[in-house]
Amino acid sequence: MVERFVQVSNSFNIEWTCRPTWRRASYNTSWCLVGCSIGDMGTILYFQMMEIAWPVFWIMALAIFNGLITSILLETFILFKQMGLRLALKTALGMSLISMISMEVAMNVTDFFLTGGATLNWWVAPLMLVAGFITPLPYNYWRLKALGKSCCG
Q1: Is residue 152 one of the residues assigned to a domain?
Q2: Which of 26, 86, 139, 140 has its CA 20 to 30 A from that of 98?
Q3: Is residue 40 within 8 Å of 64, Cβ to Cβ?
Q4: Which are the contacts of 11, defined by CB distance < 8 A and separation ≥ 6?
Q5: CA distances, 105 to each of 15, 55, 121 (Å)
Q6: Residue 14 resides in a domain
Q7: Chain-centroid distance, C-alpha 92
């Protein structure tokens, strides 16, 4: 029990200036962003193009769910060549949901505050992607540095 406490408390005292870890965390976060944004933005765009009149909250909730699913599917596809389907899916499901959910929420909050709803246009999409990338990045760095675990990639 004491060893576990020391291990956890030491994981908060990490070096935040390690460039290789920031590069790896950025690479991992980028792959997660690709997967999440396909499902998230695809859902929002579908509702927008089909002019489906759902409440904004439900569109964004569905967009977050679809973003999580597409991220897991993309990660499984990427890892399939290295480890087979079963282990790839298990690894993808073991990714950090904290990272993915924070990414999804950041993207949707950015969209909502800039457009007033669930709307994609040429100027909001890049801002959503930046918010989705920056939000989980410190957490992903910490997971790599303190725990030796990747969120994805």
Answers
A1: no
A2: 86
A3: yes
A4: 142, 146, 147
A5: 27, 17, 18
A6: no
A7: 12
Reading the block at residue 61, the tokens are 């909730």
Which residue has tokens 């890892």?
Answer: 79
Residues with Cβ < 8 Å from 120, sequence gap 6 or more? Answer: 41, 44, 45, 48, 111
Tokens 């949901």, located at residue: 97
pTM, two decimals, is: 0.83
Question: Residue 118 — φ and ψ, nearest 5°?
Answer: -100, 85
Q: How many CA atoms does the CB half-sphere of 62 hold within 13 Å?
A: 13
Polymer length in residues for the chain: 153
Compute the CA torsion angle 81, 83, 89, 93 (nearest 10 deg): -120
Per-residue pLDDT of the chain (153 residues; tens, 9 = 90+): 545 544 555 667 888 999 999 999 999 899 889 999 999 999 999 999 999 999 999 999 999 999 999 999 988 898 888 889 998 888 888 777 888 999 999 999 999 999 999 999 999 999 999 999 999 999 999 988 988 766 554
Q: How many domains are contained in the chain? A: 1
Q: What is the extent of the structural domain holding 135? A: 19-147
Burial class (CB in 10 A: 0-12, 13-18, 19+), 142: middle
Helices and strands (H and E) in the chain: how many: 7, 0
